[in-house]
Amino acid sequence: MSSVGEWVITGPRVGESMGSVLTLADAGLAGKRVLLRVDVNCPLDPETGNFLDDSRMRGVLPTLRRLASSRVIILSHQSRPGRIDFTNTYAHSDLLSRILGRPITFVPDVCGDIAQDAIRNMHAGDMLFLNNVRGHEDEIGMKYADFDELHESEIVQNLAPLVDVYVCDAFAASHRNSPSLSGFGKALPCFAGELMAKEVNALKMATESPPKPYTAILGGVKCDDTLEIALNLSQRADTLAFVGAVGNLMLWADGNDIGETNEAFLRKELGSAFDSTWEMANSLLSDHRERLLLPVDLAAEVDGNRVDLSVEELPPQGPLFDIGLYTCMKIREHIVDAGCVLWNGPAGLFEKDDFAFGTIEILNQCCESNGFVIIGGGHTSALVNNRKVVDLVGHNSTGGGACLNMLAGRRMPVIEALEASAELFRDRLEELDLA
Known about the structure:
The chain is α/β, with parallel strands linked by helices. The protein has helices spanning about 55-60, 60-65, 90-100, 115-120, 135-140, 145-150, 155-160, 180, 195-205, 225-235, 245-255, 260-270, 275-285, 325-335, 355-370, 380-385, 400-405, 415-425, and strands at about 35, 70-75, 105, 125-130, 165-170, 190, 215-220, 240, 290-295, 295-300, 305-310, 320-325, 340-345, 370-375, 395. The radius of gyration is 23 Å and the shape is elongated. About 50% of the residues are buried.
């Protein structure tokens, strides 16, 4: 089996062993029946039902190519019952087949007789795509179940006896708990797919062992999640730079008058989480001030125009929608010499042309950095994709909420299940003809 390698400045190597979790580098799966859980939950056009973005499909291609000589049974979800974009996964199967360039057969069943018969009749190199797993009541109804209860679910009990191994490449759903995601740990040898290994390795670098100096740029409007990330990184990061709404909140907590409009926005956005978020902001200011970089200038929208002002000129006459030039220059000083940069969350309302400056400037700085750059999920990840600069950063996360949860140090049930399976099966791979 492969061993954990040393981190290098070019970043984690795809497929390399993750130590406590088995990866595809640890197994020989030619001809084996592989149950592959992916997350190809895609945004759909509400009128036509067409896919608006296929990046999650493309994200699992390395794993599918690596499993080309196996018998692969793909399982995924699309939205959830009751929503307009809750559909079967026939179109997913068809599009993935065209992107991959090989046949993938859609099976209109999750784990019943139709699915079981199709799995039994597979040949080496065949690929099946089962129906939307959230069409099965256990997938939605068991999110609070423990691993023993998930093991007894119909999905696990029906599918596990028919396959040799389980592979999870659904990083974007790895903060969820359900039979198809975290229920196979006791039943089968479970492996992280290529995307899962790449995501976890990169985000573990950001939270545990980043090359130094380490700069984290944290923005967006999810102030509660973002400040939880900041607290989790406060012992690792040399610099914590705050931009966007969270930057405004930090300025407010530091005694600056950001104006009633901006205060009201933050209170409404945070709702019942305002008090706990305010407490986190004050904790960062009191315990880690030497690591913090707050905005020194900002841009407000006044009468439809961008108005730049320094922090000393606060309060503004309108909503704060961007950081200013001097803040960008200060952030640049920390990005240029960084060994590792994490960026999660835009610097403002970049969808408006007048207020895109800060976000685009940070993106440009990240692309020019010689350090290993990790882009968090959500808006910043989409921006990297839209501007076609993925190749200029070290890692662009596919995992929105999963990325936030991992960076914040929260529980990740899918990773826990993979770790539990590795403990059970690591020493039996040769015996099971999987080494």
